[in-house]
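Q: How would the structure tokens look for this protein?
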Amino acid sequence: MKKNSIISLIAVLIIFILNSCNSSNAKSVEASAQATDADYYITIDASKIPNDKFGESVRYGRELMLRTAYYIGPNGINGKYLGNKMNCTNCHQDAGTKPYSFNLITTNDNYPQFRGREGKVLTLAERVNNCVMHPHNGRPLPLDSKEMVAFLSYYKWINSFVSKDSLFNGAKSIEISFPDIAASPERGKALFIENCVRCHGIDGQGQYNADKSGYVYPPLWGEFGYQPGSSMHRIIKQARWLKANMPYDKVTLGKPYLTDTEALDIAAYVNDDSIHERPNAKTHDIVYPDNKDKSIDYDKGPFVDIFSETQHKYGPYQPIIGYWKKQGWKPVY
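A: Here is the predicted structure in token form.
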């Protein structure tokens, strides 16, 4: 009896030790996954789009990302919804899959989402139309249209390459540090001439593709550029994109060519409304119903803080950020 008790006790101890090891190993694996989760890039292989009806919609959605104006631009073969010939991929590069380029891979998971600019929760379809109406200066797609369904199908498909809430490099815009000085359109002009003119032209009007159905290099201002109030019209927002992606033949993935100050200066020049006109400027005044939801680089008052429109637009931004934090508010940019 005593012998059996000893054997039973030993068995219990062995099981306990094994379980402890397994638990420790599991925690180690989990910690390792968490540590490395953000250390990789997501690659989307378009050849894996399924060969079925859903796949047809996904393929069309990808085509719409790459050749938006061809299909639904001012002379679109499937509808005339856009007011200019820019393509989604001009900003969301590689059909929304390029890291640090307003990446769209997790968009399907992230919507519905509250948007401060509109002051309400938007569906993904509403967010698509937000882009159609503002950067593209167009009219909204019908929610049940073939095109809207294709956009949503494509976003759902690319989202299937990542698990919900996973982190990966380039999912969000690259970080930027703010200098103690304001962004300068004057310095930005010199940098624009040095780095940007060869593609976008001295007049900022970009270059069409061969059949002029869309742009290889989009216009940065003027009648066919993006509207005020668009994301690219905010200097911090554009500077983060520029830092990660431009000049396209000098920057490499995760290794910027422009400094933070240079990116801010170029964005300041591109978005200098005193010298660069934009379409439908009146739309600039009908966003952000709650002033506390305004991005700090949005340049139209009223504001909840003490800073001018000029400082909100060009900076320096650190005093604004410090003021907001002191008030217990979360600065958005």
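DSSP finds 13 helices and four strands in the chain.

Residues 1-38 have pLDDT under 50 and may be disordered.

Upvote if useful.
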